[in-house]
Each structure stands twice: as structure tokens, then as C-alpha cells.
Amino acid sequence: MKEIKTRSGCPVSYTLDFLGDKWTLLILRDMVISDKSTYGEFLASEEKIATNILADRLTTLEQYGFVTKKVSPDKKSKLLYNLTEKGIALVPIIMEMGIWGSVFNPPGLNKQLLDQLTTDKDGTIRNFQQKLKDRLLQAS
Predict the structure, then answer these.
(1) What residues contact residue 124 under an 8 Å CB cut-off, 6+ apart?
(2) What is the mean pLDDT of the chain?
């Protein structure tokens, strides 16, 4: 298992030890906002992650309990990734980052999602988290 060494007891530093690279949050974003769950779907993202980096980040996310991996019932050669409770707990952070990025780098999030977050942030986040929890239950 790839070991992540924490640099200090600071909670921000601890979070960055897991999520502070260029790609991990984008994979999580795709799982939360775009309902992506397969290697191929992640590869198709606009940012064009390299295959070796994607494989490494998915393995790390699984090893540290952010995602689970399961063989697809439709195709045995395809793996499905789902967020765990630990990963689902990151939804508010991902949404806040999306809002921040939308303000300082328009157009940002798609308009419908941004409108939902603007009018009912807590409810929108709860809805995303519930959908992900339901998917996790179906996968087990």
C-alpha cells in the first residue's frame, strides 16, 4: 500500500496530504457532479489525465477509504468506483470550491447547479450526498 505520511497535526495539512495534488479532487468532482464511476469515464474528462496517474490516484483513493472498487455486473473487465462515506463527506468542500471557482473563473459550474447552490446550498449538498449514499448501498 502506498503510504501517505502526514506532515503535521494541522487539519488543513492533513487534508492536503490526501487531496492536495493536481488530480485527486478532479476525480472526486467527476464522481460527485458528473456521476462518473469507470476508468474510461474519468479518462474522458476535459483535463485529460494520463492513464498512469489516474490508475495511481484511484488506487490511493481506494487504499485510504475514499472509494470502493467493484467489478461491473455488466462487463467483468470493467471496474466501478463509488464514493464511501469518507468520500461523500467531501461533497460540501467540492461544492464550495465549485462556487469559488465560478466567481473567479466564470462561467464555472453549470448554470443549473450554480443556481441550485445559490438558492439552497445545504439542500443541494444533501441531495448529492443522498444520491451517492444510495449508489453506495446499491453497489454493496
Answers:
(1) 95, 113, 116, 117
(2) 94
User: How far is it, in rounded angstroms, from Cα 85 to Cα 70?
Assistant: 16
C-alpha span between 68 and 73 (Å, rounded): 15
pTM of the model as a whole: 0.93
- Is the pLDDT assigned to residue 1 strictly greater than 70? no
Domains of the chain with CATH codes: 11-139 (1.10.10.10)
C-alpha cell at 52: 498512469
Q: Where are the alpha helices (DSSP H) in the chain?
A: 11-19, 24-33, 39-43, 51-63, 85-88, 91-104, 111-139
Higher pLDDT, 89 or 6: 89
Alpha-carbon distance of 24 to 43, in angstroms, equals 13
